[in-house]
Write a structure and sequence with these properties.
alpha/beta, Aldehyde Oxidoreductase, domain 3, TIM Barrel, 2 domains, six-stranded parallel beta sheet, four-stranded antiparallel beta sheet, 11 helices, about 20% strand
Length: about 290
């Protein structure tokens, strides 16, 4: 992840502006302008780390927004601390030495990013671990927090998952509403095959075995098995195994930690899980600040 990219910079800038970080009334009133401090970020639970690179970038963007010359800062981490590593309760994530006012003003924004990203990575790792030993790969979806998609999807990768489409231009996925408006799977597929850009794969969402047959007959190049039972997914896998050409199979809908293993053992290639990014529980972290 390039935390210096314009997209990430814009996300961080919006977060700091939202919190009016450069107008921190409490820190201005209580803390001397020249005081130095050391802030230790601690994990308060076992979790998968994601977002360590965001710390320095937040401090840089804060300095740009503040418009004043701020004192030099230093972010120190242990060599074994990096995105994707498993943290333990009480473990130090990083130590930041900087102007005390700046540390206090950036505290919540730093923790918000680290906690959300690490929460997504942690949940993703649980799903990845649950299907260990199978050939299936865990995918995310576009069910991300508005404006934070690139952050959310990076966190999924830190947890061992793969990214599905980044946005609507990133592939053709014919879903229920496309099918309804086109008049069925057959006309939807015919139009997509005529109108696709370049070599984009045509993936079709099906909900029944009959719809699967329609999709295969009309040239679907990948199939999304939506809200099917495990038994029906197994039948779909068996049906596609008889084809001359391998058709990637993905299943989604109602996938939870308590049933993901059963779906994985059906033989599908991918399982997409919306709750990785739409319902993650933030990892518990804190920042302790002391005079330096």
């Amino acid at each position: 992840m390039d935390f210096n990219s314009r997209r990430i910079t814009a996300i961080i800038e919006n977060a700091l502006l939202e919190d009016r970080a450069t107008r921190d009334a409490t820190s201005y009133a209580c803390v001397d302008a020249n005081q130095r401090a050391a802030a230790t970020i601690l994990a308060k639970q076992e979790c998968i780390l994601s977002g360590i690179g965001v710390i320095a970038r937040i401090l840089d963007v804060y300095a740009a927004l503040d418009g004043a010359v701020t004192s030099h800062y230093e972010v120190t981490t242990h060599p074994e601390i990096f995105d994707g590593v498993r943290l333990h309760n009480g473990q130090s994530v990083a130590v930041i030495r900087h102007n005390a006012r700046v540390l206090l003003s950036c505290e919540r924004v730093i923790l918000n990013f680290l906690q959300r990203m690490s929460g997504i990575a942690t949940l993703t790792r649980k799903f990845v671990d649950a299907v260990f030993g199978t050939t299936v790969r865990i995918l995310d979806t576009r069910k991300t927090a508005p404006g934070l998609r690139i952050i959310d999807k990076y966190a999924v990768r830190c947890g061992g998952g793969l990214n599905h489409r980044l946005d609507l231009s990133d592939g053709v996925l014919i879903k229920n509403n496309h099918i309804a408006l086109a008049g069925g799977i057959v006309p939807a597929l015919e139009r997509a095959l005529r109108n696709r850009r370049g070599s984009q794969t045509i993936e079709v969402e099906v909900r029944t075995l009959n719809e699967l047959e329609d999709a295969l007959r009309c040239g679907a190049e990948a199939i999304l098995l939506d809200n099917m039972s495990v038994d029906h997914v197994c039948l779909a896998v068996e049906r596609c195994s008889k084809l001359e050409k391998h058709i990637p199979l993905e299943c989604s809908g109602g996938i939870r930690l308590d049933n993901v293993r059963a779906y994985a053992e059906s033989g599908v290639d991918f399982i997409s899980v919306g709750l990785l990014t739409h319902s993650p529980q933030a990892a518990d972290m804190s920042m302790r600040v002391q005079s330096a």
